[in-house]
Amino acid sequence: MNLLITGAWSGADKLIPVLERSGHTVVFMQQEQDSLPCSPAAIEGVVCNGLFLHHDISLFTSLRFIQLTSAGADRVPAAYIKAHHIALYTAKGVYSIPMAEHAVMAVLAFYRKLRLYFDNQSKCLWQKDRSLRELCGSTVCIIGCGSVGSACAARFAAFGCRVYGVDVCAAQQPHFDTIFDLKNLGEAASQADAVIVCLPLTPDTEGVLDSRFFARLKKGCVFVNISRGRVVKTADLLQALSKQSLCAALDVFEDEPLPADSPLWQMKNVILTPHVSFAGNGNAERLNDVVMRGIEDGTRNSQKIV
Q1: 304: exposed, middle or buried (Cβ count in 10 Å: 0-12, 13-18, 19+)
Q2: Chain centroid to CA 302: how far?
Q3: Which of 164, 170, 223, 225 could form a disulfide with 248 if both were Cys (CB 3.0 to 4.6 A apart)?
């Protein structure tokens, strides 16, 4: 099979020889925005992230499968892929562990007032604040109960939290006390001390977290977004944050990089990270396993189609 692999797969250099020994013909391109190093019409399988943001997928007339290095599939033309019966594989599960740990860290940072103590440390100031919160006994609402949301649920449950989930499919899952349907989002979130957003970005979820949602949150609620910035209406979030009734840990944004003139940079009740919640030292091995399985499945299924 003719494969096009991009630099989005960090382990490609070590595993391309393995693929070639298995009979695949591999073409590699480091940067997905660069000119294609071969005729797209000859490519049958692709390993990439945002390749089709820069190159017209319709030129890949022999394409049988796509293996993404991202857990989300919002950067590929889903309608075209479905219409042309192209198999699509994501990196589901690869980044769940670091993202869940990031979510716990974010909530604890507010509960234990780390910003205050970091500031005091810079001033050599010994000053105690005993109004610290415990995670145990808190109610955590996780919006999106896929692999990332499930990993978050397991960790918050281990801390002794009540864990509510919100998902398009309200079927019960381990580590969740209750799972609400997405139409009952406001009801679930209104009971939460912390809200963790793990929603995939789809036409149905874009902008779903708006002023009506934020108005339902408790005073002092910690809002954590580790999914996609566009599931949140930023203007509505800014309004809620400006009232100082909400804390937020934001890893993703509508516009990335976050513009320097965004009010979010200056807010004391906000922790910002530059879309790094997915980063972890175990990712490479997990991604290698997922990609190699995806190529194997894509090749096998393509042979069945032919």
Answers
A1: exposed
A2: 29
A3: 223
- Token pair for 90: 């994501």
Structure tokens of 283? 């990712």
Portions of the chain given CATH number 3.40.50.720: 2-94+282-305, 96-272
Give the model confidence (pLDDT) of 189-214 as tens digits.
999 999 999 999 999 999 999 999 99
Q: Which long-range contacts (CB under 8 A, 24 or more apart) does 253-262 make?
A: 253/229, 254/229, 254/230, 255/229, 256/229
This prediction has a pTM of 0.94
List the CATH code of the domain at 96-272: 3.40.50.720
DSSP the chain: -EEEEETTSTTHHHHHHHHHHTT-EEEEES-TTSPPSS-GGG--EEEESSHHHHS-GGG-TT--EEEESSS--TTS-HHHHHHTT-EEE--TTTSHHHHHHHHHHHHHHHHTTHHHHHHHHHTT----------STT-EEEEE--SHHHHHHHHHHHHTT-EEEEEESS----TT-SEEEEGGGHHHHHTT-SEEEE-PPP-TTTTT-B-HHHHHTSPTTEEEEE-S-GGGB-HHHHHHHHHTTSEEEEES--SSSSPPTT-GGGG-TTEEE--S-TT--TTHHHHHHHHHHHHHHHHHHHHHHH-
pLDDT, tens digit, for every residue of 223-276?
999 999 999 999 999 999 999 889 999 999 999 999 999 999 999 999 999 999
Q: How many Å apart are CA 238 and CA 123, to the nearest integer?
A: 30
Distance from C-alpha of 280 to C-alpha of 264, rounded to nearest angstrom = 25
